[in-house]
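Supplementary notes for students who missed Thursday's class. We covered one full example, reproduced here. Read the sequence, then the structure, then the short commentary at the end.
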Amino acid sequence: MVLGVAATLVLPLALTVVGTGPATAAFNPAAFDFWVDSPVMGPIKTRVLRAADGNTDRVVYALDGQRATEILNGWENDTNVADVLASWNINVVMPVGGESSFYADWNSPSSFFGVPAGAGSSAANTGSGITEALGAGPGKSYRYDWETFLTNQLRWALRDRLGFNPNRNGVFGLSMGGSAALTLSAYHPDQFSYAGSFSGYLNISAPGMREAIRVAMVDAGGYNVDSMAPPWGDRWLRMDPFVFAPTLVGNNTRLWVAAGSGLPMQQDLDIPLGASADRIVRGSPLEALALANTRAFQVRMDTLGARNVTYSFPPVGLHAWTNWQDEAYRMIPDMSANIG
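Structure (token representation):
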């Protein structure tokens, strides 16, 4: 109950990316745009960075957070993780877009009170939240269909056009993307032999979590959680890692599950004082909530006798790209050994 109350109060910002990445991270000229049509969503851009040795067998999908933009995936924009993965001879697939989507197949286009998209502000991906609730844009003008896109249209296009192995891929993500990575691996074990969740919300059916996610979605682009999945129905429970944990155990999918302590890293302190204070004030309670959620998932897996998970709980780490970048560094050796 305490966790539920905390979630209601804190989670509205919990899926937001706090702070910025290292100065060396930005658009990577070595990566290229890879466009694939979704029958439901239309043309979708993905950024692809090829493995250093040119192989096509080792592939990993990097999923973004709640405020994913239509320009670049956050792993490219805010970290150098894609470069590191490529140096490990891994092909990196970075889907672009999907703000507030949880990379799920939604029940319907996002709308409020039956008002059609475009009735309000036409601005998109500005983060202005409720002012965009009645506006047009991705997931409002059409129904989000991300799970199907990632596991069908994109998967086979990568195989047919680039020769990428469609099986035994890896998938990882932060926050919203971390939860989605576990979902994808649970229901598509032939495609994903490895999944990583960083600061994910892995018990979304806990008291207060749905309403907290509701507020978070309104804040991040003006999306309606009821359009994603009806409350407590099969579609909602299907998205909850705590609920489908037995499937992860049964599949024996290799997992990396992590959350920071909520204490700042040195990189969070080595920036201007105002920015550092903002990052700590916002990122510390958010990561504490993610840690509590992740620990609950750990208990659930332990009761099932899971032996396919590595847990990482570093002594420092905020809900910020500094934490997620370092966590990716820790995960890469294990992931490299379990894909392809």
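Commentary. The chain is about 40% helix and 15% strand. The first helix runs from residue 2 to 10. If anything here is unclear, bring it to office hours.
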